[in-house]
What we know:
There is one protein chain. The chain has a domain at 25-169: 3-Layer(aba) Sandwich (NADH Oxidase). It contains 10 helices and 4 strands, in the order H-E-H-H-E-H-H-E-H-E-H-H-H-H. The protein has helices at 25-33, 53-62, 67-71, 83-91, 100-124, 139-145, 175-178, 189-199, 208-216, 221-235; strands at residues 45-49, 74-81, 128-132, 152-161. Helix 1 (25-33) packs across helix 5 (100-124). The longest helix is centred in the middle third of the chain and has 25 residues, at 100-124. The radius of gyration is 19 Å and the shape is globular. The structure holds flavin mononucleotide. Flavin mononucleotide (FMN) binds at residues 10-12, 14, 66, 130-134, 156, 170, 202. Flavin mononucleotide binds at residues 10-12, 14, 66, 130-134, 156, 170, 202.
Amino acid sequence: MTYEPVLTPHRSIRAFRAAPLPSGMLERLVAEAQRAPTDATAQMYSFVRVADVERRARIAALSGEQEHVRTAAEFLVVCADVHRLARLLELHGRALGAFPATGLHFATVDATLAAQRLIDAAESVGLGTVCIGGILNGVEELVELLALPRGVLPLFGLCLGWPAEEPVRRPRVAIGSVLHTDRYGEQTPAAAAADVSAMAAITRSGDWPSVLARYFAVGGTMEEREPALRRVLERQGFAWR
Ligand SMILES: Cc1cc2nc3c(=O)[nH]c(=O)nc-3n(C[C@H](O)[C@H](O)[C@H](O)COP(=O)(O)O)c2cc1C
């Protein structure tokens, strides 16, 4: 028996036609995103739509001058959101408990599941999408710019628009690298080498480990980002000691 998924093949799109979404389409896609499963019924996420051109340009700049943030028909900031829940409890005479780590976990999982469903729905009607983690390069300014209250944490941006490019499907590591049975299986050097060679095509240089190191090794860009994110976690009520 063969099984063929019916999902539209995903590929990130970074070049968009200058055409808007038809009226009501974004709301329809968000309604579909809301069908995502949600832990304890809480729906701890919000999407902030950035329609204002100047605001969008500022976010493109602080995300590392990513032109597609400017040119996409729609741009959403996907947020973990414990604030709405706290307000609802407050309106019912109850105070939100002290669980910043659990709140971060719940809200990040909820937001990510909903955003992935939004991506799937968008791609199923022919739209292109790309997530924008680059917003974390200016996360403190972004919190100000979008007036995010305590309890709301921006996770990533999401560009949506009509594709003006058709990129090849980009590689992934082997299924065996991500699927474990019964207990976690350490990757063999040979399997790691096979992944490195499979992933070469996603880089300009052909050297995937160097790309990963630029982001994640000692002295990489993630270490640079870390202090600002910690400050924002503290400020938005997601930090603990
Ligand atoms: C959380 C997240 C953040 C990302 N941030 C960016 C980004 O800032 N800019 C960008 O051009 N692509 C970004 N991407 C897209 C990835 O580069 C892309 O998904 C990956 O290279 C695989 O390519 P594919 O989506 O075409 O299969 C991001 C993806 C995710 C999931």
